[in-house]
Amino acid sequence: MRKIILLIVMTSFLLLLGHEMAYAFAPGDQDCTKCHALNAEQAKEVLKELIPDIKILGVQNGPINGLWEVSFESASKKGILYVDYSKQNILAGNIVGIKTKTNYTQIAYEKINPPPPPVIIDYSAIPLENSLVMGDKNAKYKIIVFDDPD
To answer: Is the dihedral of CA 84, 31, 112, 110 positive or negative?
Structure first.
């Protein structure tokens, strides 16, 4: 009876001791990019059935562990998609950090679609000879409205 109890205790101890070895990485060292990779060619292969004319602009780690952020161009429009590490699923939508309220997708989108520079117009160069002036023509602020006469 003692041998059976001793055997059960030792087996339990060994199982608990071996529990640490069941992980692929040491606790806190889960860098999945050590085993998983995605380059532009692979991303194109994964996404070409959904978007036949896709051009991959860039691939990088996504804001969530387990996702790649893929910037792409299709039909002259640029966008962001996320591909999981299994390369079986995509996420098309915004990823927003709850605590920081940061829209990570919007930040990535603005990097590939920067806003156009402001247009500076020299209003003094616009001819006003045949214009209809309403109010004081020497006013400090003026509004110019263009209209098609037809």
So the answer is: positive
Contact, 22 vs 14, CB < 8 A?
A: no
pLDDT in tens, 24-52: 555 555 677 778 899 999 999 999 999 99
Q: Give 101-147 as a DSSP string.
A: --BHHHHHHHHHSPPPPPP---GGGS--TT----S-TT-SS------
Question: pLDDT class for 104, splitting at 50, 70, 90?
Answer: very high
Q: What is the DSSP letter of 96?
A: B
pTM of the shown model:
0.60
Please name the amino acid found at residue 1.
Answer: M
